[in-house]
Specification:
- The protein has 431 residues and is α+β, with helices and mostly antiparallel strands.
- The protein folds into three domains: 190 residues, no CATH class; 67 residues; 149 residues, Heat Shock Protein 90.
- 55% of the residues lie in helices and 12% in strands.
- The chain contains ten helices and nine strands.
- A five-stranded mixed sheet has the order 4-6-7-9-8.
- Helix 2 packs antiparallel against helix 3 and helix 6 runs antiparallel to helix 7.
- The radius of gyration is 32 Å and the shape is elongated.
Length: 431
């Protein structure tokens, strides 16, 4: 799920409040309470915040001349500028004794929500290094301090062990905030994608059911008429042959319509203790002659615990993935089916079981990796591809509580991984 660009505008709006609070707190701390050593560096930081916030507010406006700049492009820039501003505010107000050091966590949450890939962790790591440098340089009196004053006395610098404890506390808090935020975001992304997929497949099911119904009704009438015609021309062998050909064609249409209706009709899955390796073996038996002469099949079925799933649905999904893999190797190659227990390797589904379908085919372009699960998206329309198979596979696996992942490299091949939950008995213990 992509967070809305309005988040960038929201950050700009809240920054006006933050800059105002810098002026208010500085004035109160210096002129009212007398705890600050000097207010001028803090006023300068507040002015800087107002200036860069005004520039950002101008850039992201719809009527801005920089129309090619999208609001979401500014997240990293805004986070970096805010971290610099926060660091300066804390530095000029007794960094090591300032309780507002916890505000770094807020920026880590924003980074985890809006930045992708390794960037949230890079931001967290760089921030922790800067914080550590300031803490230890101050504790060693290598940089000027701006200590708080209470009762006319300045707070002393931290002892080395105190500085180390403060750094460890702040660094681990930043790391945990980043990890939990990115983990939650990934989970929400997956849940949102599965929800959208189910909504699309439900709409498609309703559509094809209606089409099949409209085909079936007149088809019955045509078949009745054809039977009467066949009785009238039974003495003419040539016409009888034509009638029989028409009857066979109508029967094929009828079978297709019934298959479409069966596809559209919701089917309840029977989730039970299922042997994954047996399901994979059954799939290979069903492939039969579909495996080409230049394609070698390799099995790597390791000892895995049973899963909570539906045997026939798993076979249907693996069969579909194998069919796609064979189509991706027109000049031959290797099809590998592997099962393995993920154990603690899978952060999202602990003790899960993976089924990998690996081919050495043409691969999938990066731009298509997310589209392949979209209904009606296909790169094999000329050879009869409908674009429904992978979308249906994802929906079925999702209904069993699992997920499908894909990795691909152009010219080297593709790996589809089906991840399912391990079966647990009534005492919630693995079987």
């Amino acid at each position: 799920m992509k967070l809305p660009p309005s988040g960038a505008i929201w950050l700009i709006r809240i920054r006006w409040i933050a800059a105002t609070m810098v002026f208010v707190a500085t004035t109160l701390g210096y002129f009212g309470l007398g705890v600050l050593q000097t207010p001028y560096p803090l006023y300068a930081v507040g002015v800087g915040m107002l200036l860069y916030n005004a520039i950002l507010a101008f850039i992201v406006r719809e009527e801005s001349p920089l129309r090619g700049f999208r609001p979401e492009d500014s997240f990293l820039l805004q986070i970096v500028l805010d971290l610099v501003a926060l660091t300066l505010v804390l530095y000029f107000s007794d960094f090591c004794h300032n309780p507002f050091v916890v505000y770094y966590i807020f920026h880590m949450i924003i980074a985890g929500m809006y930045l992708r890939g390794a960037r949230p962790y890079i931001v967290a790591g760089a921030t922790a290094l800067v914080i550590g440098a300031i803490i230890f340089l101050e504790s060693l009196s290598l940089i000027p301090r701006f200590p708080f004053r209470f009762g006319g006395r300045e707070l002393p610098p931290l002892h080395n062990l105190e500085a180390l404890a403060l750094f460890c506390a702040v660094a681990t808090s930043l790391g945990m905030a980043t990890y939990f935020t990115t983990s939650i975001r990934r989970y929400v992304d997956r849940a949102h994608a599965e929800l959208r997929q189910k909504e699309k497949m439900l709409g498609i099911g309703q559509l094809v059911a209606g089409i099949a119904h409209q085909i079936a009704n007149p088809l019955d009438g045509v078949q009745n008429c054809l039977r009467r015609i066949s009785e009238a021309v039974k003495n003419d062998p040539r016409l009888t042959e034509y009638v029989n050909m028409m009857a066979e064609a109508l029967e094929r249409i009828e079978r297709t319509a019934k298959r479409v209706q069966a596809f559209a009709q919701p089917r309840g899955l029977v989730l039970e203790k299922t042997d994954v390796n047996a399901a994979v073996e059954g799939t290979l038996a069903m492939l039969g002659t579909r495996i080409g002469q230049n394609i070698r099949v390799e099995k790597d079925l390791r000892p895995v615990p049973p899963v909570l799933g539906d045997k026939y649905t798993i076979q249907e999904v693996v069969f579909n993935l194998c069919t796609n893999a064979l189509a991706a190797m027109p000049n031959g190659g290797t099809l590998t089916l592997r099962t393995k227990a993920l154990g603690t390797q899978d952060d999202d589904q602990m003790n899960s079981v993976a089924i990998e379908v690996i081919d050495t085919g043409v691969g999938i372009p990066r731009a298509n990796l997310e589209k392949i699960f979209e209904p009606f998206f296909t790169t094999r329309a000329d050879s009869g591809g409908t674009g429904l198979g992978l979308g249906l596979c994802r929906m079925l696996i999702s209904e069993m509580g699992g997920r499908i992942e894909v990795r691909s490299t152009l010219g080297q091949g593709t790996t589809f991984t089906v991840i399912l939950n391990a079966y647990r008995d009534k005492d919630n213990k693995p079987a």
